[in-house]
Design brief:
The protein is α/β, with parallel strands linked by helices. Helix content is about 40%, strand content about 15%. The chain folds into two domains: about 110 residues, Alpha-Beta Complex (Aspartate Aminotransferase, domain 1), CATH 3.90.1150.10; about 240 residues, Type I PLP-dependent aspartate aminotransferase-like (Major domain) (Aspartate Aminotransferase, domain 2), CATH 3.40.640.10. The protein has a seven-stranded mixed sheet, with helices on both faces. The protein has a four-stranded antiparallel sheet with strand order 11-12-15-14, covered by helices on one side.
Length: about 375
């Protein structure tokens, strides 16, 4: 007879990596509500409210705004698969791993991808974007990551949005790590497709990817020669579920929708500008604390995301052994480097519910013990 394991009890953690962030008890209680059908009228009422809150947080009036049933990478794939067709030219602004992932997915859908930038942790100059569009006047889309969690870089978007609009290219933006933690102005910055993730500054559990499509992006999707090769992420089909027709497409994860609904209520109760200030202030305190202990920021000044510090390790300070001790002895999770930064940097997040001074204080105390040997 097979032995049944004990019920899993997750340990208590200070979540201070690049995601997921801590989850408010109100959001956890929302997830525990009774499950109802994804075609239930009450579910559609909730979805209407959820979409309206997303529009406020994305700062957009876009009709096609909804949560993708999947993580942030599903949001990325939804954006690229629906806009790009084989043979389209796409320009990828690369400053880290997740822009490289955008480039890879675009290539898999048959796009001819042109790379601008390429050096991790270094912002892309808008003049280089303009030059690339001049060289490729038929480019359909420019793809950028707002907050690159592999490097802690904040890429300014407003000027790039103007350049794209002037040249008729769609502007696709990854706001997975920025939405709800720093200013994102979809309409004001000329963003045509913007997607995020539920588990970072929005502080819901992982599993949903809010996304919004402009009228220009919608027109491009309507003008496709053939539907995208993905059925599950086909936004034109999902529109018939999240819009007024209410036609079945797939079984929506209703308990996750409950969680996101409550998480968005918390964002709006705090107020967007107040929430951005909180991340700016506590993120600044986090970085100052790390610098006092010998860590050095990777991105140049003026291009650092407040909610995620990516820092070079002090000389002689070992990556994995110290992260292991921090987790096991102090219950604090931070992340190491990815790709070419592996073993060289730590990525320390103060996102959403994790953006509070108690977390920064706990990390400071833990680091002091680690550095003391």
């Amino acid at each position: 007879m097979t032995e049944i394991p004990d019920r899993f009890e997750p340990p208590e953690r200070f979540l201070m990596g690049p995601g997921p962030s801590a989850v408010n008890p109100r959001v956890l209680r929302a997830m525990a509500a009774p499950v109802i059908g994804h075609l239930d009228p009450a579910t559609f009422d909730m979805m209407n409210e959820l979409q309206d809150m997303l529009r406020q947080i994305f700062r957009t009036s876009n009709d096609l705004t909804y949560p993708v049933s999947g993580t942030g990478t599903a949001g990325m794939e939804t954006a690229l698969a629906n806009v790009l067709e084989p043979g389209d030219v796409a320009i990828a602004l690369v400053s880290g791993m997740f822009a490289e992932r955008m480039r890879e997915i675009a290539s898999r859908y048959g796009a001819d991808v042109v790379t601008v930038g390429g050096e991790w942790g270094v912002p892309v100059d808008p003049r280089d974007v303009a030059a690339a569009l001049d060289q490729h006047p038929n480019a359909k889309a420019v793809c950028a990551v707002h907050t690159e969690t592999s490097t802690g870089l904040r890429q300014p978007l407003q000027e790039i949005g103007r350049i794209c609009a002037d040249r008729g290219a769609l502007f696709l933006v990854d706001a997975v790590a920025s939405l709800g933690g720093m200013e994102v102005d979809t309409d004001g910055w000329g963003i045509d497709v913007c997607y995020s993730g539920s588990q970072k500054c929005l502080s819901a559990p992982p599993g949903l990817a809010p996304i919004t499509f402009s009228d220009r992006a919608f027109a491009a999707m309507e003008a496709r020669k053939k539907p995208p090769s993905t059925f599950y992420l086909d936004a034109m089909l999902i529109r018939r579920y999240v819009g007024t027709e209410r036609l079945y497409h797939h079984t929506a994860p209703v308990s996750m929708l409950y969680a996101l609904h409550e998480a968005l209520r918390l964002v709006l109760e705090e107020g967007l500008e107040a929430r951005w200030r909180r991340h700016e202030e506590i993120g600044g305190e986090l970085l100052a604390m790390l610098e006092e202990r010998g860590f050095r920021p990777v991105p140049p000044e003026g291009y650092r995301a407040p909610q995620l510090a990516c820092v070079w390790l002090p000389e002689g300070f070992e990556d994995r052994p110290n992260r292991t001790r921090l987790l096991q002895e102090f219950g604090i999770e931070v992340a190491g480097g990815l790709g070419q930064f592996a073993g060289k940097v730590w990525r320390v997040g103060v996102m959403g519910e994790s953006c509070n001074r108690d977390y920064v204080k706990a990390l400071a105390e833990g680091l002091d013990q680690l550095l003391a040997g």
